[in-house]
Structure prediction request, 135 residues.
Amino acid sequence: MVDSGEIIKGDKLILRGLRFHGFHGVKPEERTLGQKFLVDVDAWMDLRAAGRSDCLSDTISYSDIYRIVKGVMEGPPQNLLESVAELIASTTLTKHPARISAVRVKVGKPHVAVQGPVDYLGVEIFRYRSVDGQS
Prediction:
């Protein structure tokens, strides 16, 4: 079992500020008009081989993870951001079983109906292969 402190300090791929228009949410207007979403992803994996070889085959392309996120964000609507983040995390771990040991997904809504100014509201989840039984 991998210690979460070890994962946090390890190598990772970083995708920040991914922007999508999607139809996730529980309100009817969210399902019909859609809204903007912001997504950040960290994928923990050993990057030493890629660092030494300078070969894409020794790592995972950012584009692969981007396509996973895009598929979820622009795919079938989910009621909750928790479900959206879980789909991104579980798909990422499933599609890269031998390489990615953990994933952090943050999904935010920048345009929400709250009483006051906000950058965004959202969720952040961490999923670890050993904890979630994905191998």
Notes: The first strand starts at residue 12 and ends at 22. Residues 81-95 form the longest helix (15 residues). The chain has six helices and four strands. The chain has a mean pLDDT of 91.
